[in-house]
Amino acid sequence: MITVAGAELSGALEPVPGFIESNFNPLVYHAAAEVLTGREFDGSRLAVVVCSLIGDATTTGLASRLLADGQVHNAILFMQATANAVLGYLSREFDLTGPLLSVSTVDDDPLDTAELLLADPELDAVLLLTVELAADERTAAAYRLLGRTPPTTDGATALLLERDPQ
Questions:
Q1: 163 by DSSP, 3-state: which?
Q2: What pLDDT does residue 163 have?
Q3: Which residue, among 106, 44, 111, 52, has the nearest Cα to 82 in the 3D structure?
């Protein structure tokens, strides 16, 4: 049997220290915190998965524009463009030492990933985070090429799937 807890967030959120410009990482962090805060869990037996079709296009786009304009590159943008960066921060805040993954949802259903992870007897739970940012012109074209409707707002969901102790 599996128990489920969840949260859904959208819009502007309080910034996360060390992350700039984009709403992607704050969405991931705050959605996860909404579900994890106040819960008792063994951080070594919890897997965390960030799922996104496009990823942090805001940060990637800013870094690309700076490069194309010949401006000085901000090194923090490289780190932040990787979805795993916020997972490192999250793991420190909540003492998580289990698997941390970032996956694209182009061909995969995030629930399939969670199911696969829960088959591991070393894990008791999976925190499944999905996050998408409002599409700009460039990412809207990518969504359309993939046959998907571009999102018009930033949003994230967190779903904690826990195996009941037996």
A1: strand
A2: 82
A3: 52
